[in-house]
Amino acid sequence: MSSIKRINTEEEVHFERRDNEISKSPDDVKLKSCNIIKELWTNKCDFIFALLSTLIYGIIIPFNGYIKGHGLQALSSKYTTIRYDNGLKYSLIFLLIECFKIIVYFIMNWTLENLGINLSKIYRKKMMKKYISFHMSFFDIDRNSPGSLLSKMSIDTVQLHIFINKIIGIALICFSLLVTSIILGFCYEYRLTLITLAFLPLLLFITFLRRLILQVDSKKSMEANMEGGRIISECVTNTKTIFSYNFTKEALKLYLESIDYITQKQIRDNIINGLVLAFIYFSRNLVNAVILIAGKNYILNNTLDSDNMSVFQTFMLNNFKTIITAYLPNVGRIRKALASLRSIYSTLETESLIPPFDENNNNKISANNILGKIEFKNVYFAYPSNPEHVILTNINFTILPGQKIALVGYSGFGKSAIIQLLEGFYDDEMIKDKF
User: Fold this and answer.
1) I want to staple 86 with a disulfide (CB 3.0 to 4.6 A). Which of 1, 18, 74, 333 is the partner?
2) How far, in Å, are 160, 303, 312 from residue 72 at the CA level?
3) Which tens digits make up the pLDDT trace of 376-417?
4) pTM for the structure as a whole
5) Per-residue pLDDT tens for 25-69?
6) 65 Cα distance to chain centroid
7) 248-300 vs 171-198: helix axis angle to the nearest 10?
């Protein structure tokens, strides 16, 4: 057992677990987008530029393909004048768009990185403040060992970069790219556009099914990472003891066993990734084949000319390929980033049972009005890490102001426990009666 709650009866005093009261579980966290946007808004300039640049970047890609298609059409013309004039015109336009695209891409990456760094800094500061304000019972819970907390702070805050890049970056690029492609496609050739869009739901389903399968054991994988971090922390802290007792091989074995599940999961994930990506590439080629068959029929029926067919293939299918092969597989990582955010907010939303900061202790007893008299009345206490063993049983004593006393006893008889209770390390839910 890791955390406890007193149950007082006439016959005895015993304790029960209350982990979720002491430390909030990530499963109980409900993320609010307004809280995250509020943190991002602290850097308004980067936030606005990141938002605009990602949308513009997604819009540029279809137009770039459209101009490229017309340029290739002009260069393949049998007339020298058209090849020269139109080829040169579309080449220059394509070059200008590419230059503008590079500038937008630089601004987008610069601002997204700044947002990611700033967001990591904000949350690390908040988590650090929380860690140094928590009551001792918080750290007695297994999932809140020092090694686990350090792993959480490093791994989860690094995931914030992914959160920024995937939510603000790729999601917005996909949105603007898809909307622009659909508008251009319907304006240019609506029939082939409808055929192309008919395959999109299937590919979306396969992509998100892949992420769902990969995330089945994400919680167990996260726990394995935390356990590995805890073992590393304890090994580094107790290096001299490990060498003294020749425990090096055993320590390494413990660590490898803790991360063995992660290794197995990575092998399984690689197999799933390979199968899904193979299906996505097959579907992309299938779309090309269907478009070519439909285009051939339209050309033979004189409802579409070969030049327009060539342009459509160049810009619409390339945009479609970009969405399903470059962006959609990364959108699934949002789930992992959100899991890290829940982990972070499980710490931030946990209230300290004994808050140490001045702003949390207004209108409470201060050192100016304490008499100095200490009195324990019928006190029972057990550590959260070992609730079956009651350290203090019906303790009663009084220490008057200025009086000097000594706490004497065998190891484990409660001397340190009394001092910790006096210092307020544990809240009164773990104590019977008052002192």
Assistant:
1) 74
2) 42, 22, 12
3) 888 888 776 667 777 888 888 898 888 888 888 887 788 888
4) 0.69
5) 777 788 777 777 888 888 889 899 999 999 999 899 888 888 888
6) 34
7) 50
